[in-house]
């Protein structure tokens, strides 16, 4: 039997995962991206890699939280199949607030107790916090602890996927300007190309072709802070924003929070930078001496309801709208997409699936 030819447009996180798994399943894969193998400009590169569905439950739909909880159990299986991936952590996350903002923390506790009673949420006093994160106890008298949450190294993962795709000799075309994506065909650098199946993972590149798709700007800093020793993801509750601090190996930290309704990915404003860095300093004074390694601004794709969508029609699969939940939701969306494809085309190998599919995500036309 001839192999099914699949063209994947966009090599961000979802595009790379799909290319790898579909290649291993026996499909003939071509991967196209307008950028480079580092993922420059992609939403996946401008992320904290947080796997904290419950911490985000106040500002995320219940479906997002449910999918994130399932994804937490799927990530280790995915990462185990990659050579050289080195940073995954599931030792819990912490939520803190300054005294004047304790109301935000209490509101979160009420919300979690009402909607997620099995969250295993624990309130830590200063001594308990000192046991987990000694340096946070210097500024905070209490914290909320969610023991099952975690994080991964988003850029390390992109690099590991790059190496894996290269090792398995997957056809990857870079500098590829793709437009007019349709069933069985797309326009590549002005020329029409065809495939048995086209998978559209362009993110914001599909704005104008997918109804209600918009861009939401996200901003973060990559810091080197030798005077800071925090090992778990930390979220600072605040009336105007929820700052997150994602610790990486060797005193590297990702600090982010801002969300702006904009398709502008230019440099950060002074106001945004001051808010982010001042908030980080309010969590730990050691950030005052941190070196700013990189300021990152990127646009994330989102639909009007901020939920992801998988849209299927014969010859075309569109996956988009991951918003700021790309790493949180990727495993569930990957399995969902693999299941849809395996049902529509000859199954060359069996897929191992968790059998968790949120039917509301799929639109069939």
In short:
With 365 residues, this protein is α/β, with parallel strands linked by helices. The chain has helices at residues 13-24, 62-80, 102-115, 126-132, 154-167, 270-283, 326-344; strands at residues 5-9, 28-32, 50-51, 88-89, 93-96, 122-125, 142-146, 150-152, 171-173, 178-182, 185-188, 191-194, 197-200, 214-224, 234-236, 243-248, 252-260, 291-302, 309-313, 316-320, 362-364.
- Which stretches of 5+ consecutive residues score pLDDT under 50? 348-365
CATH topology of the largest domain: FAD/NAD(P)-binding domain
Number of strand segments:
21
The helical percent reads: 25-40%
Structural class: alpha/beta
Task: Please outline the helices and strands.
Blueprint: E1 5-9, H1 13-24, E2 28-32, E3 50-51, H2 62-80, E4 88-89, E5 93-96, H3 102-115, E6 122-125, H4 126-132, E7 142-146, E8 150-152, H5 154-167, E9 171-173, E10 178-182, E11 185-188, E12 191-194, E13 197-200, E14 214-224, E15 234-236, E16 243-248, E17 252-260, H6 270-283, E18 291-302, E19 309-313, E20 316-320, H7 326-344, E21 362-364
Parallel strand pairs: 1-2, 1-13, 2-9, 5-15, 13-20, 19-21
Antiparallel strand pairs: 3-8, 4-8, 5-7, 6-7, 10-11, 11-12, 14-17, 14-18, 15-16, 16-17, 19-20
Helix pairs in contact: 1-5, 1-7, 2-7
